[in-house]
Amino acid sequence: MTDIPEFRPEFKNKSIRSFVIRAGRMTDGQKKAFEQYWPKYGASLFSGAFDAEQQFGREAPVVLEIGFGMGDSLREMATNEPDKDFIGIEVHPPGVGRLIHTAGEAGVANLKVYMADATDVLEDCISDASLDRVQVYFPDPWHKKKHHKRRIIQSEFVQRIRGKLKIGGLLHFATDWENYAEHMKEVMDAAAGYTNTQANGDYSPRPEYRPITKFEKRGERLGHGVWDLVYQRSQ
Question: Which N-terminal stretch is annotated as signal sequence (predicted)?
């Protein structure tokens, strides 16, 4: 059982982050969700290596999502792919509260959640060659050029992910910012040990397993594009 956090993310000290802690008011329902469901779904950065077989009580493919927002699509994926086990990482307490509330109400059993800095979780908790898929959907684009160094998708980050993926495992990005999509593709095309799953080396069609979010549907109505990139660990 994991202690209930005081609605604050866990992280180690560092100078540059890929996120900011946004002020978000916790609803009474979200606060209650932590009390009721965090012991079931919560995982702590400070508990050491994550043992998926022990945590989920079985041996199954493991999917890690970094930055799940309000968690609706992650909960939907966990429901739609019961043969896989899911780990979510998010720093914003309202999103974590919503996810564990809706997952608990739906009886989702194949989900664990970190409220922590993803780079810290990757470094301290996720074993090498243990993941079948890693997904990062609609990360903060940090669209001002002076802030590009804060973008999570960087060469060092994707190599850290590669070490955590099994050979043949997938790294999947999605963004609605064309400039960020171009940046992601540039990073991935230059990254050692990865192969684009598209034979023509282009962006990927949206895989069936990735739900279309309300945010994405709204963007489509406004004429906004969405770009998916799916790369496979080849070595």
Answer: none
Active site residues: 140
208 is in an annotated binding site: no
Q: Which long-range contacts (CB under 8 A, 24 or more apart) does 156-161 make?
A: 157/119, 158/187, 158/188, 158/191, 158/194, 159/191, 159/192, 159/193, 160/119, 160/122, 160/123, 161/122, 161/134
pLDDT number for residue 6 = 63
**CA quadruple 215, 217, 219, 221: dihedral, nearest 10:** -150
Structure tokens at 219: 């963007």
User: How large a percentage of the chain has pLDDT more than 70?
Assistant: 91
Question: Would you say residue 15 has pLDDT above 50?
Answer: no
Annotated binding-site residue? 144: yes
Q: Is 214 annotated as a binding residue?
A: yes
Please choose, from the candidates 212, 228, 230, the residue with its C-alpha nearest in 3D space to the C-alpha of residue 220: 212
Instruction: For residue 201, give the 3-state DSSP assignment.
Output: coil
Query: What's the average model confidence in pLDDT over 23-49?
Result: 86
Give the position of tokens 């243990």. Answer: 130
Which phi-psi region, left, alpha or beta, contains residue 77 (left: φ > 0; alpha: ψ -120 to 50)? Answer: alpha
Which pair of tokens denotes residue 142? 């940090």
Which structural domains are found in the chain, ordered by start? 28-233 (3.40.50.150)
**Helix boundaries (H) for the chain:** 28-41, 52-56, 72-80, 93-106, 118-124, 155-164, 178-190, 214-221
- The mean pLDDT value for 129-156 works out to 90
Model pLDDT for residues 163-191, shown as the tens digit of each residue:
999 999 999 999 999 999 999 999 999 99
What amino acid occupies position 38? Answer: W
Does the annotation list 185 as a binding residue?
no
